[in-house]
Protein backbone atom coordinates (compact mmCIF):
# COMPACT_ATOMS: atom_id res chain seq x y z
CA UNK A 1 0.00 0.00 0.00
CA UNK A 2 1.03 3.59 -0.52
CA UNK A 3 1.54 4.15 3.19
CA UNK A 4 3.81 1.10 3.49
CA UNK A 5 6.79 2.01 5.62
CA UNK A 6 5.30 5.25 6.91
CA UNK A 7 5.00 5.26 10.69
CA UNK A 8 3.55 8.76 11.14
CA UNK A 9 0.62 10.19 9.25
CA UNK A 10 0.28 13.87 10.20
CA UNK A 11 -3.25 15.26 10.06
CA UNK A 12 -2.92 18.66 8.43
CA UNK A 13 -5.58 21.38 8.53
CA UNK A 14 -4.60 24.21 6.22
CA UNK A 15 -6.30 27.57 6.08
CA UNK A 16 -4.20 28.60 3.09
CA UNK A 17 -3.01 26.23 0.38
CA UNK A 18 0.15 28.30 0.01
CA UNK A 19 1.32 26.87 3.34
CA UNK A 20 1.20 23.29 2.05
CA UNK A 21 4.67 23.04 0.55
CA UNK A 22 6.55 24.76 3.42
CA UNK A 23 4.73 22.53 5.93
CA UNK A 24 5.41 19.35 3.96
CA UNK A 25 9.08 20.28 3.54
CA UNK A 26 9.35 20.84 7.30
CA UNK A 27 7.82 17.41 7.93
CA UNK A 28 10.32 15.94 5.47
CA UNK A 29 13.28 17.59 7.14
CA UNK A 30 12.04 16.05 10.38
CA UNK A 31 11.88 12.60 8.78
CA UNK A 32 8.16 12.31 7.98
CA UNK A 33 7.34 11.69 4.32
CA UNK A 34 3.58 11.76 4.07
CA UNK A 35 0.62 13.84 5.19
CA UNK A 36 -3.13 13.64 5.31
CA UNK A 37 -4.56 16.96 4.12
CA UNK A 38 -8.06 17.27 5.50
CA UNK A 39 -11.09 18.55 3.66
CA UNK A 40 -12.12 20.45 6.78
CA UNK A 41 -11.06 23.66 5.08
CA UNK A 42 -11.74 24.82 1.55
CA UNK A 43 -7.98 25.06 1.02
CA UNK A 44 -7.69 21.27 1.26
CA UNK A 45 -8.07 20.44 -2.42
CA UNK A 46 -5.62 23.09 -3.60
CA UNK A 47 -3.17 22.01 -0.89
CA UNK A 48 -3.30 18.40 -2.13
CA UNK A 49 -2.68 19.61 -5.66
CA UNK A 50 0.28 21.67 -4.45
CA UNK A 51 1.87 18.56 -2.95
CA UNK A 52 1.13 16.00 -5.64
CA UNK A 53 4.54 16.38 -7.28
CA UNK A 54 6.66 16.98 -4.19
CA UNK A 55 9.54 14.50 -4.48
CA UNK A 56 9.73 11.66 -1.95
CA UNK A 57 6.47 12.70 -0.36
CA UNK A 58 3.11 10.93 -0.32
CA UNK A 59 0.08 13.18 -0.10
CA UNK A 60 -3.30 11.87 0.98
CA UNK A 61 -6.65 13.30 1.91
CA UNK A 62 -8.57 13.20 5.17
CA UNK A 63 -12.13 13.86 6.25
CA UNK A 64 -13.26 12.25 2.99
CA UNK A 65 -16.97 11.70 3.52
CA UNK A 66 -18.58 11.00 0.14
CA UNK A 67 -17.76 9.36 -3.21
CA UNK A 68 -17.66 12.85 -4.73
CA UNK A 69 -15.02 13.80 -2.18
CA UNK A 70 -13.02 10.77 -3.30
CA UNK A 71 -13.16 11.94 -6.90
CA UNK A 72 -12.14 15.47 -5.98
CA UNK A 73 -9.13 14.43 -3.91
CA UNK A 74 -7.92 11.79 -6.35
CA UNK A 75 -8.24 14.26 -9.22
CA UNK A 76 -6.17 16.69 -7.16
CA UNK A 77 -3.44 14.08 -6.64
CA UNK A 78 -4.20 12.30 -3.36
CA UNK A 79 -2.66 8.84 -3.24
CA UNK A 80 -4.52 7.67 -0.16
CA UNK A 81 -7.88 8.48 1.37
CA UNK A 82 -8.76 8.60 5.07
CA UNK A 83 -12.22 8.91 6.58
CA UNK A 84 -13.30 9.42 10.18
CA UNK A 85 -15.81 6.59 9.82
CA UNK A 86 -16.70 3.68 7.56
CA UNK A 87 -18.88 4.29 4.52
CA UNK A 88 -19.14 1.52 1.94
CA UNK A 89 -19.59 3.91 -0.98
CA UNK A 90 -16.47 5.87 -0.06
CA UNK A 91 -14.40 2.70 0.22
CA UNK A 92 -15.74 1.35 -3.06
CA UNK A 93 -15.09 4.58 -4.94
CA UNK A 94 -11.54 4.80 -3.59
CA UNK A 95 -10.81 1.21 -4.61
CA UNK A 96 -12.33 1.88 -8.03
CA UNK A 97 -10.06 4.93 -8.40
CA UNK A 98 -7.05 2.84 -7.45
CA UNK A 99 -6.01 4.61 -4.27
CA UNK A 100 -5.53 3.22 -0.80
CA UNK A 101 -8.36 3.86 1.60
CA UNK A 102 -8.14 3.85 5.39
CA UNK A 103 -11.61 4.31 6.89
CA UNK A 104 -12.17 4.92 10.56
CA UNK A 105 -13.62 2.23 12.78
CA UNK A 106 -14.66 2.29 16.41
CA UNK A 107 -16.29 -1.09 17.02
CA UNK A 108 -15.91 -4.77 16.17
CA UNK A 109 -18.97 -4.46 13.95
CA UNK A 110 -17.25 -1.80 11.87
CA UNK A 111 -14.02 -3.78 11.67
CA UNK A 112 -16.01 -6.78 10.46
CA UNK A 113 -17.72 -4.70 7.78
CA UNK A 114 -14.43 -3.19 6.64
CA UNK A 115 -12.84 -6.64 6.40
CA UNK A 116 -15.74 -7.77 4.22
CA UNK A 117 -14.98 -4.82 1.94
CA UNK A 118 -11.49 -6.27 1.55
CA UNK A 119 -9.59 -3.95 3.88
CA UNK A 120 -6.99 -4.86 6.50
CA UNK A 121 -5.57 -1.39 7.26
CA UNK A 122 -8.01 0.64 9.35
CA UNK A 123 -7.95 3.90 11.27
CA UNK A 124 -9.07 3.67 14.88
CA UNK A 125 -10.83 6.93 15.65
CA UNK A 126 -11.00 8.58 18.13
CA UNK A 127 -8.39 6.25 19.56
CA UNK A 128 -7.84 7.73 23.01
CA UNK A 129 -11.52 8.10 23.79
CA UNK A 130 -12.24 4.56 22.60
CA UNK A 131 -9.65 2.89 24.81
CA UNK A 132 -6.39 3.16 22.89
CA UNK A 133 -4.10 0.16 22.95
CA UNK A 134 -6.49 -1.82 25.12
CA UNK A 135 -9.13 -1.72 22.41
CA UNK A 136 -6.59 -2.47 19.66
CA UNK A 137 -5.41 -5.58 21.50
CA UNK A 138 -8.97 -6.71 22.13
CA UNK A 139 -9.87 -6.31 18.44
CA UNK A 140 -6.72 -8.14 17.35
CA UNK A 141 -8.11 -11.34 18.85
CA UNK A 142 -10.92 -11.91 16.35
CA UNK A 143 -9.20 -9.89 13.59
CA UNK A 144 -5.53 -10.99 13.62
CA UNK A 145 -4.87 -9.77 10.07
CA UNK A 146 -6.04 -6.20 10.70
CA UNK A 147 -3.51 -3.46 11.41
CA UNK A 148 -4.59 -0.16 12.90
CA UNK A 149 -3.80 3.52 12.48
CA UNK A 150 -4.78 5.06 15.82
CA UNK A 151 -5.81 8.69 15.52
CA UNK A 152 -7.21 11.10 18.05
CA UNK A 153 -5.25 11.81 21.21
CA UNK A 154 -1.98 10.37 19.94
CA UNK A 155 0.85 12.52 21.30
CA UNK A 156 4.60 12.43 21.98
CA UNK A 157 4.01 10.62 25.28
CA UNK A 158 2.11 7.67 23.83
CA UNK A 159 3.14 7.41 20.15
CA UNK A 160 6.04 5.07 20.79
CA UNK A 161 3.87 2.71 22.83
CA UNK A 162 1.31 2.54 20.04
CA UNK A 163 4.02 1.91 17.45
CA UNK A 164 5.59 -0.85 19.52
CA UNK A 165 2.39 -2.86 19.21
CA UNK A 166 2.42 -5.31 16.28
CA UNK A 167 -1.22 -4.52 15.53
CA UNK A 168 -0.40 -0.87 14.80
CA UNK A 169 1.10 -0.01 11.40
CA UNK A 170 1.37 3.74 11.96
CA UNK A 171 0.03 6.53 14.15
CA UNK A 172 -1.80 9.63 13.07
CA UNK A 173 -2.27 12.99 14.68
CA UNK A 174 -1.93 16.72 14.51
CA UNK A 175 0.60 17.36 17.24
CA UNK A 176 3.67 17.82 15.03
CA UNK A 177 1.92 20.31 12.75
CA UNK A 178 -0.96 21.88 14.59
CA UNK A 179 -3.25 24.36 12.91
CA UNK A 180 -1.75 27.08 15.13
CA UNK A 181 1.84 26.24 14.18
CA UNK A 182 0.87 26.19 10.52
CA UNK A 183 -0.99 29.50 10.80
CA UNK A 184 2.04 31.04 12.51
CA UNK A 185 4.33 29.75 9.77
CA UNK A 186 6.47 28.08 12.44
CA UNK A 187 8.14 25.53 10.19
CA UNK A 188 11.07 25.23 12.60
CA UNK A 189 8.74 23.89 15.29
CA UNK A 190 7.07 21.51 12.83
CA UNK A 191 10.48 20.17 11.82
CA UNK A 192 11.59 19.79 15.45
CA UNK A 193 8.39 18.05 16.58
CA UNK A 194 8.59 15.71 13.59
CA UNK A 195 12.21 14.85 14.29
CA UNK A 196 11.42 14.19 17.95
CA UNK A 197 8.53 11.92 17.01
CA UNK A 198 10.67 9.89 14.62
CA UNK A 199 13.55 9.69 17.12
CA UNK A 200 11.25 8.40 19.84
CA UNK A 201 10.50 5.23 17.88
CA UNK A 202 13.87 4.58 16.28
CA UNK A 203 15.98 4.52 19.39
C1 LIG B 1 -8.28 14.15 13.68
O1 LIG B 1 -9.03 13.62 12.90
O2 LIG B 1 -8.42 15.28 14.13
C2 LIG B 1 -7.08 13.37 13.99
O3 LIG B 1 -7.44 12.17 14.50
C3 LIG B 1 -6.10 14.07 14.85
O4 LIG B 1 -6.43 14.00 16.17
P1 LIG B 1 -5.52 14.81 17.19
O5 LIG B 1 -5.74 16.27 16.88
O6 LIG B 1 -6.02 14.40 18.55
O7 LIG B 1 -4.11 14.40 16.94
From TrEMBL:
Keywords: Carbohydrate metabolism, Lyase, Schiff base
Biological pathway: Carbohydrate acid metabolism; 2-dehydro-3-deoxy-D-gluconate degradation; D-glyceraldehyde 3-phosphate and pyruvate from 2-dehydro-3-deoxy-D-gluconate: step 2/2
Any one Pfam family match given in the protein's UniProt record, by short name: Aldolase
InterPro entries referenced in this protein's UniProt entry, alphabetically: Aldlse_KDPG_KHG (IPR000887), Aldolase_TIM (IPR013785), KDPG/KHG_AS_1 (IPR031337), KDPG/KHG_AS_2 (IPR031338)
Gene3D superfamilies, per database record: Aldolase class I
Reaction catalysis annotation: 2-dehydro-3-deoxy-6-phospho-D-gluconate = D-glyceraldehyde 3-phosphate + pyruvate
The family this protein is said to belong to: Belongs to the KHG/KDPG aldolase family.
Assembly with partners or alone: Homotrimer.
Name under which the protein is recorded: 2-dehydro-3-deoxy-phosphogluconate aldolase
Amino acid sequence: MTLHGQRFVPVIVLDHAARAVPVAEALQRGGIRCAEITLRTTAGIDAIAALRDLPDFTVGAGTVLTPDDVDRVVDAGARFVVSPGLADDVVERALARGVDVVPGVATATEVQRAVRLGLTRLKLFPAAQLGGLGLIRALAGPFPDVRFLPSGGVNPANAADYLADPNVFAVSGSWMATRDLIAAGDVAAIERLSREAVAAVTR
